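Review box. Two proteins, two foldings.
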Amino acid sequence: MSDPERRRFVLAGGLILNFGFGLTANLVAFQATPLRSLALSTDNWLSPTLVVNALAFCIIVGGWLVAVGQESAASLGFRRSNLGIGIGICAATWIAMQAIATIGQVASGLPLSAIAPGFPGAMPVLLGQLAGNALYEETFYRGYLIRALTREVGGRNWAAVFLAAALFGVMHIPNYWVRGMSLGFLVPATLAGILFGFLYLRTRNLWLCIGLHSLLNVPATLWESPMPAYLAPTVVVFLCLGLGSRLRPRAE
């Protein structure tokens, strides 16, 4: 098997495994009593989102892309050289979100002791994103798929971003169906895929994508914010798009 044939074989297999995972996770795994019991017994620190996506990461990323596809951590975007800036920007974003929420709390005349009821429970959910959902999705769709599709579309990485984003949106159909949501929600999911696709192309910082993706899904603010919780992470994404190559990793 030639290298191009092997790469296409790995790409096709990865897509099949990914969509199989999406169906199984939403129709079976997330509904399973043992996983729900595990979440209850650990105060949701071992949530179905964390467990199922971590398993997908091990099987699809580790077992297929790395073991079979011969990908490396670096080729998938996990570079130590840009870990610090990724963590720094995401931490600063979360602090900015707390500041906005604090101003809103004070302006509303509410005591700062009145922490949002959902805050304690949001922390394990945020962990489920950082080490589960966002970790898997950003690695597969941004770290791997964009680069794999770029080879298939003659090096046009912008086209690969749109293709990967479309697949990212379609992958959410089982989730929306199970939750009784309109398929119209595919539009924001696809747009998010485009936004994070170009963010990764501009910065080559997968850590940054994982962190901002997590904060968009689970803001985890101490108090109720007077502005939409997704506003600060979205603004930061656009700022990072503007900075672009300045946020790229140094050569290792």
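Next protein.
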Amino acid sequence: MIPAGTLYRFARSLVAKKGHVSDEETQALLNAGYSHGAVFELVAQVAHTTMANLAHSISHAPVDQAFAAQASDAPAA
């Protein structure tokens, strides 16, 4: 089983450093069992999520009802 914590730390670093992760951080992800393809998929997902969040903050489009509970501005349950 591949540890998810390594993926989480890499994703957090990727966002915090605006994509400028170190070779050591990338190698740690590879050493944990992730492939080069998985690293690229993670980068693509972070890019997609960032773009979607930026577009939403500009458009103020309503969140679909199915996802309302997961929205960051959703009232606490």
